[in-house]
Amino acid sequence: VPFLMHDETLRRTTNVKEVFPERALEYSYTFNWTDLEKLNAGRWFLQSDPFWTADSLSPLDSIAVQNQSICKLAELLRLAKEHNKSAILNILLPPADHPHRSGYINITLDTILKSGIPQGLLKHLFDIYCICIYSVSAMYAYVQSVKKKIFELKSGIIKKKDVYYVRIVFLHCREFTAWNLSTNLYTVNEPWLYSVLWCAGVQSVTSDASHLLNKVLSPVWLMSPEEYYLIWITSDVISFTIILGVFILQKWRLGSIRTYNPEQIMLSAAVRRSSRDVKIMKEKLIFAEINNGVGSAEELSLCSENGYDGYANDAITPMDHQ
């Protein structure tokens, strides 16, 4: 019986630990359908609330989720047919010791045909036929390769690509469309990324947040090239104006400082100093004017607590403080 299960085991999304504690670590394909029907597959969702949406459920929906069981492939196909929704099938290869290893494709195809779902709603139907024709290793190369197997993709054997969006270039999406090759990217959970891929020409995405992407009826922010150029040029003009204004202001400030004489600068810097310090600085300036050419900070800083002891300069003779 083909059934739906993401994980290899049943521990995360069912209550297998309670019903079959001794088999909790076994793979899901080791259970028969009679055992799988006994498991609850919805209670974990309400308890862990992985997408923070459990509070938004109505009381009736909460009861339905809490009583959810493992879903058959036939039930999924029936729902897809009733609501005209696409179904992406990712058929896993059973292990070598599985009793239906040799006939699992025929069982799956028989389930699909009995459901009566239109083939246009099955996005991976061609993958199943390719597995029938080619080996599993060849099919893996078909699904994983984007650039190296481009000539095989152009042959039209596969009609669907399912790849990580980080491995694909937007230009390739348009090329795939030109070759009648639809593209599905996974996993896309953010509206902004969904919008970018939409504009890039991606036909569909696989998401864990369909309740959010469902509300995005058009790309979040789509601007024309004219609007883009306008914003770009306007930003450059504003930036240039600000930089030029700062340059002019700085030049004006430096130009006004050059009009001050040394005494004005020194006295302005000493406004908050004590009167004794101001007096000493005035005396420094007076001696500096008398002995033109002597103005370094080290030569004019020989002031002790009792006054000036003298200058260690050949051009000035020692003198007592007046």
Automatic annotation (TrEMBL):
Residues 1-217 form the GP-PDE domain. Its main location: membrane. The chain crosses the membrane at residues 229-249. GO terms for biological process: lipid metabolic process; positive regulation of neuron differentiation. InterPro entries: GP_PDE_dom, PLC-like_Pdiesterase_TIM-brl. It is a multi-pass membrane protein. Signal peptide: none annotated. It is found in: Membrane. GO terms for molecular function: glycerophosphodiester phosphodiesterase activity. Keywords: Glycoprotein, Hydrolase, Membrane, Transmembrane, Transmembrane helix. One of its GO terms (cellular component) is plasma membrane. Belongs to the glycerophosphoryl diester phosphodiesterase family. This is Glycerophosphodiester phosphodiesterase domain containing 5.
